[in-house]
Design goal:
single chain, 321 residues, globular, two-stranded antiparallel sheet, mainly alpha
Length: 321
């Protein structure tokens, strides 16, 4: 059997199952959580937040169909399931920030201890996975953005990883979701989608570092468009002493939409940037250390230049806050 066959199965089953689940949920969307536009939204009409309700079961079915039996798949899936339940409750009724973030950190800590034992590496991994969990939630604000990042980012991790079934299951589920989320979006992920996805992405990144599939810079480069936007925005809000846990529209991708970019144009531009970062990361894996350092520095330089350009354009509009 072709060793890549289980990964193909996971993509196909993930896409089909997620698409079918969403078709079913769309027929009952009025009874499920809805994202209603407010002063912080980029959208103009109420849209169901049900993408995650279909994606996570799609990922689980894809892993089962692909024959996943390894604990490196089942344990992260089980812990992501806890976040799925917690996040659906948050979508449905709203939960205190302390309960949400506490749950994210507890689940991430559990996985980090299981992978790395009681060590400084486990603590660092727990913090990184908690950040990745919330980063996905922060960046899920434009049509097709988080879904496309999942296809590209998880796809690159799958190509480079020994734990590929889970990564490609997420790719398939994201493809099924994008059928309904690419501009014009008919559904959003909601916390029940973005939180488990971010956790699974962080888990795969952490597994790869601990098991030496890749160095630390690799997943950071793969997810650079998400990581840099979210991290720089958070640091700037902290410097202004804002409530960093509160929703806002200050991310760089949000500013582009507010300055007149369409959701479609933004998504396609982000896809191009993500693909370049992912392709560069794969190529640099087998390159000499000096080339790796130069590649990472070049990526940081490009992102710094893009953020500087957006900041200048944003200031020129007179809307900067």
């Amino acid at each position: 059997m072709n060793p890549f066959f289980p990964n193909i199965v996971s993509v196909l089953v993930g896409a089909l199952a997620t698409s079918m689940f969403l078709w079913f949920l769309m027929r009952r969307a009025d009874a499920l959580p809805v994202d209603r536009p407010n002063e912080r939204s980029l959208h103009q009409r109420p849209t169901p937040r049900i993408g995650g309700l279909a994606m996570f079961p799609g990922i689980v079915l894809a892993c089962i169909a692909a024959g996943a039996r390894d604990a490196s798949v089942l344990v992260p899936l089980g812990l992501a399931g806890l976040l799925y339940v917690l996040s659906f409750a948050d979508d449905w009724r709203g939960l205190p920030a302390s309960l949400r973030f506490g749950g994210h950190f507890a689940v991430a800590t559990g996985l980090a201890l299981w992978v790395a034992g009681a060590s400084p590496l486990a603590l660092a991994g727990a913090i990184a996975m908690t950040w990745m969990t919330n980063l996905y939630n922060f960046m899920d604000g434009a049509n097709g953005l988080a879904g496309g990042m999942t296809v590209i980012g998880f796809g690159v991790l799958g190509l480079a990883s020994g734990e590929a079934i889970l990564a490609f299951a997420a790719v398939g589920a994201a493809l099924g979701f994008l059928r309904y989320n690419f501009d014009p979006a008919r559904v959003f992920l909601g916390d029940a989608g973005s939180v488990p996805l971010g956790f699974l992405g962080g888990a795969l990144c952490f597994f790869g570092v601990v098991r030496e599939h890749w160095p630390l810079w690799f997943p950071l480069l793969v997810f650079a468009p998400f990581v840099i936007d979210a991290t720089v925005t958070l640091l700037k809000r902290m410097a202004r002493r804002e409530k960093v846990w509160a929703a806002h529209r200050q991310h760089y991708y949000q500013r582009l939409v507010r300055m007149g970019w369409s959701h479609r144009r933004l998504a396609l531009a982000e896809y191009a940037l993500m693909s370049v970062c992912g392709g560069l990361a794969l190529w640099l894996l087998s390159a000499p250390p000096a080339w790796q350092a130069a590649g990472v520095a070049a990526c940081l330089g490009v992102h710094a230049a893009l953020m500087f350009w957006i900041d200048r354009r944003w200031s020129a509009t007179g809307e900067a806050a």
